[in-house]
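Project standup — Tuesday

K.O.: blocked on the structure for the chain from last sprint. Re-posting the sequence here as requested.
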Amino acid sequence: MAVVRDLRVLLRFQGFRRLLAVRLLSQGADGVYQIALAAHVVFSPERQASPGAIASAMAVLLLPYSLVGPFAGVLLDRWRRRQVLLYGNVLRAGLASATVVLMLGEAPDWLFYASALCVTAVTRFVLTGLSAALPRVVDAERLMIANSLSPTAGTLAATAGAGLTFVVRIMGADSDAVVVLLGAALYLCAALASLRMARELLGPDRALVRPRLTAAVAEAARDLIAGVRHLAAPPRREAARALAAMSLMRFCYGALLVMLLMLCRYALASERGEGLALLGLALGVSGAGFFAAAVVTPWAAGRLGPGRWIAVCAGTAAVLEPALGLPFATVPLLIATFVLGLTTQGAKIATDTVVQATVEDGFRGRIFSVYDVLFNVAFVGAAGVAALMLPPDGRSTPLVITVAVTYTSVAVAMARFGRQ
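H.V.: unblocked you, prediction finished:
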């Protein structure tokens, strides 16, 4: 199998093996933590979750970080990325433990959201560091393969972490706090795994490191403008187009995720446990789509080019999403989660490769932070649109059609750019 052969080649690189271990542990913890939050916010018996409440929670968790994310990227281009992975995961372990205390103490919602906000902010920082560090542990020839397998493996780890929460519940731990504590333990394991890498391995180069925090923050605005100009220059316009397309596909994914949450909560399940089990199954099927994307994308993007492959992914979603979504039935929706997992991850792998191949190392952290900001804004915007369009039970034909039209626009635009 080609993907197994490619993985064996990459695992010969010691730096890649160790960076991958950090990613798997870190994103596995993310899966545990996020499902625990979803269960607490959406599926708690004492909470009557609505699309508006879900959208508000997403805004609280993601928008504040979107305002400071680019400045985090500036710091990421100055601090040792190994240290970012170490201290970021230690900090998340502590913050997740604080979330456990708040859950057990029945704290006010705003305090609970503030704790979750801090964990999410550091999570985005760590993920940006993992992406920016990848070209430091593989050669240019294998960068496309690494971009296919590494983030996809992380996504599968997050899916496995989500599945682990259901295993813990089956074993008798009927408490969201216990699950969050498991996530905190995994964050700590990720921090320990990062210590296996040398401080200098992940860059940036010494000439680019400015250890003084105040000086780095003072220069943030000027450096960000330089990063945007770097992205807008002709050699990087392909990256800018790919980022725009991926942001719109993220918008579609976010809107459909809110719809899926509401369907699992009210329309497709009658009890909390049944709804959580259905959500877990949907996440597992989506994870299978992510794995399929890792297998298919290197070959497809190599033959078509990354831009055309993004167009194919968006076009496939545009056709199959309404066909599978409009029945609002369990089996078609599960098939749709597989398709969207494959197309979304396939487009993301291509986008990551375009950005990494065209952006210089000294700007890479900033560009990936902008990448994350676009993701967050698109996701929160999608949640807001879904809140306006979704009825209480989650069945909304207009939302499904709107998402299909958006996918079609992305496919047409990227196909046109590919011909040019």
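K.O.: great, moving the ticket to review. The chain has a mean pLDDT of 83. DSSP finds 15 helices and no strands in the chain.
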